[in-house]
Design a protein that fits this description.
- This protein is mainly alpha-helical.
- The chain folds into two domains: about 5-50, no CATH class; about 70-135, no CATH class.
- It is built from seven helices and no strands.
- Helix 1 (about 5-15) crosses helix 2 (about 20-30), helix 1 runs parallel beside helix 3 (about 35-50) and helix 2 packs across helix 3 (about 35-50).
- The chain is elongated, with a radius of gyration of 41 Å.
- About 5% of the residues are buried.
Length: about 140
C-alpha cells in the first residue's frame, strides 16, 4: 500500500487507483510545486520507455565512422609532415655546422678522417682503468 503522494502517483501510472487516492494525488500536485515537477519528469520518462521506436544510429553509421577514422589518420600524417618541414632548415643547419666542425678538427683533409672513420692504432687510443680510478 502506497503511503506518500509520490508513491501513489507512480502506482497510478501502472494501475487504477481509488477516487480517494486520485483526489489525494491531485491535491498534492496542486500544493507542492516540487512534486508537480517530479510528476512531469516521471511522465516524460514513462513516455520515453513506452515508445515503440527502436533507437538506431541512423543510416550508413559504420561507413561514416570509418570515413572519419581515415580522415583522422590523414590529418595526423599531414601534421607529422608539417612538423618535420618546420624544423627541416634547422636540422640541415646543424648538420652542416657539424661537418664544418669535423673539417676544422680533422688531422687530414681526407673523407675518412673528416667522417671519423680512420683506423686508429692501440697507441693512439687512451685506455682507462675505471676500477683503478674509482678506488684511488
Amino acid at each position: 500500500m502506497a503511503t506518500t503522494p509520490e508513491e501513489l502517483y507512480l502506482q497510478s501510472l501502472d494501475a487504477n487507483v481509488t477516487p480517494a487516492e486520485q483526489a489525494r494525488i491531485r491535491l498534492a500536485l496542486e500544493q507542492d510545486v516540487t512534486f508537480a515537477r517530479t510528476a512531469v519528469h516521471y511522465q516524460r520518462i514513462r513516455q520515453h520507455l513506452l515508445r515503440p521506436e527502436t533507437a538506431t544510429f541512423g543510416p550508413f553509421f559504420p561507413e561514416t565512422v570509418l570515413q572519419r577514422i581515415k580522415n583522422l589518420k590523414n590529418a595526423i600524417d599531414y601534421q607529422i609532415v608539417l612538423f618535420f618541414k618546420r624544423y627541416q632548415l634547422a636540422a640541415w643547419g646543424i648538420l652542416v655546422a657539424l661537418l664544418i666542425l669535423n673539417l676544422a678538427l680533422a688531422d687530414q683533409l681526407s673523407f675518412t678522417s673528416v667522417m671519423g672513420m680512420e683506423e686508429t692504432t692501440t697507441e693512439d687510443v687512451l685506455t682507462f682503468d675505471f676500477l683503478n680510478d674509482i678506488t684511488r
